[in-house]
Amino acid sequence: MGVAMLHAGFISFSSCIPSFSSGGLSRRCTRFSFTKLHRPLAMSSLSNDPIREWILSEGKANEITRISPVGGGCINLASRYDTDAGSFFVKTNRSIEPSMFEGEALGLNAMYETRTVRVPKPFKVGPLPTGGSYIIMEFIEFGASRSNRSVLGRKLAEMHKTGKSENGFGFHVDNTIGSTPQINTWTSDWVEFYAEHRLGYQLKLARQQYGDSTIYERGLRLAKNIRPLFEGVAIEPCLLHGDLWSGNITSDRNGEPVILDPACYYGHCEAEFGMSWCAGFGGSFYNAYFEVMPKQPGFEKRRELYLLYHYLNHYNLFGSGYRSSAMSIIDDYLLMLKA
């Protein structure tokens, strides 16, 4: 059976208010390559079915017994491959080059190597012979109940504490947040990184896509004046999942938390809570997290600054329903900072 006949499921996308219609932002990705800092996930040669070929060779399977769709989202097609050597999870996308999946694989691998919170181990990324690309990873059987939020908080803090970078803030490749390009150029200063590569980039997209000069000008004014919010804070580059909302959090059959679909980079640990408006963390999560990673001075004053990046991204992806939330945060900070 050819690849084109195998994939009929979907994988999740980072919107927690699905009633908004999709915006017209096109998918743009820079061609990425794996760095020597990570064990490479080899690119496959083109064949009639590179997915089947890998599973029956490097995947150590003798037989694929079943292929079934996995439902749940809107960007990629997803399937479960059952074999005599276990199950594999496969995502494909007919409209992107392997760069997007390469970024995801590097992020998953970086989190996997911390041996803290559970993530699916990535195995293979490659191009499809008829266009598009695929990623093969570990299949994790999900449990019926939600993960314990206090356990998630502790394990996430352990990941932040373990996953460090000697290169500063950023990541080894650019990747995507949803389908929006996420720029991860290494930067020694966190405030500069967040102002330019997070807020600044999203504000430019809003101006390009909607001609929104108001949010662009006010947002840039804020981005240039956020440094006082970080006074007295020692910021280390921590490995972040980057897109942690309820749709990317689940549990395995033993009830242990599992996190999926990352947009990884090394950043200020508090930036991990930028999607908290639809993550359902709660007091038990934060209490457990701060037992491992103590709360930093001014945490409450910075919380909405980190929400802003994701509100801007949702504005760019899904339209004006998110503009007012982003604008409100910008105006409140401009007033607070007297900028």
Describe this structure in words.
The chain has helices at 50-55, 99-112, 149-162, 190-210, 213-223, 282-292, 299-318, 323-337; strands at residues 64-69, 77-83, 86-93, 122-127, 133-138, 175-177, 180-182, 238-240, 249-251, 257-259, 265-267. The protein has 8 helices and 11 strands. The chain is α+β, with helices and mostly antiparallel strands and 339 residues long. The protein folds into 2 domains: 3-12 and 23-138, Phosphorylase Kinase, domain 1 (2-Layer Sandwich), CATH 3.30.200.20; 149-337, Aminoglycoside phosphotransferase (APH), C-terminal lobe (Aminoglycoside 3'-phosphotransferase, Chain: A, domain 2, Alpha-Beta Complex). Mean pLDDT is 87; it is low at 1-15 and 17-46. The strands form 4 sheets. The chain has a 5-stranded antiparallel sheet with strand order 1-2-3-5-4. Strands 6-7 form a two-stranded antiparallel sheet. The radius of gyration is 20 Å and the shape is globular. This is Protein-ribulosamine 3-kinase, chloroplastic. GO terms for molecular function: ATP binding; kinase activity; protein-ribulosamine 3-kinase activity. Keywords: ATP-binding, Chloroplast, Kinase, Nucleotide-binding, Plastid, Transferase.
Notable traits:
2 domains, Aminoglycoside 3'-phosphotransferase, Chain: A, domain 2, Phosphorylase Kinase, domain 1, kinase, plastid, about 350 residues, nucleotide-binding, alpha+beta, 11 strands, five-stranded antiparallel beta sheet
Briefly summarize what is shown.
Pfam families: Fructosamin_kin. It is built from eight helices and eleven strands. It is of the alpha+beta class and 339 residues long.
